[in-house]
Amino acid sequence: MNFMIFAGKAITLLAWLMMGYNLIMPFEGDLSLVLNILLLITLLMHGLQTLVLHHLCKTRLSLTRSDYLNVFVFGVFSLLSYRREVLMSPK
């Protein structure tokens, strides 16, 4: 499971880098438009996942800004790590 989370985070980081590069130096043709749309969807989804983390885990875990940033950047792969922490912590 740890390898899957690490691999997912690596792929997510690669996607962020491609979408960011596309903002600075747009690719040719429709690829640029597709990457811009994917960037918008990614920003919305990762923002929602950050809100989910805040509302579900704020009472069980002491969350810092880096925790929120981690979830915003890596999305569900970070949520899986925090899920494990919540399940292992005493209530």
From TrEMBL:
Upper lineage is: Bacteria, Pseudomonadati, Pseudomonadota, Gammaproteobacteria, Alteromonadales
Name-wise, this protein is: DUF1145 domain-containing protein
Query: Which PANTHER family does the record match to this protein?
Result: INNER MEMBRANE PROTEIN, INNER MEMBRANE PROTEIN-RELATED
Q: Which UniProt keywords apply?
A: Membrane, Transmembrane, Transmembrane helix
Q: Which organism is it from?
A: Shewanella hanedai (Alteromonas hanedai)
Q: Where are the transmembrane segments?
A: 7-27, 33-56, 68-84
Query: What Pfam families does the database record attribute to this sequence?
Result: DUF1145 (PF06611)
Q: Which domain of life is it from?
A: Bacteria
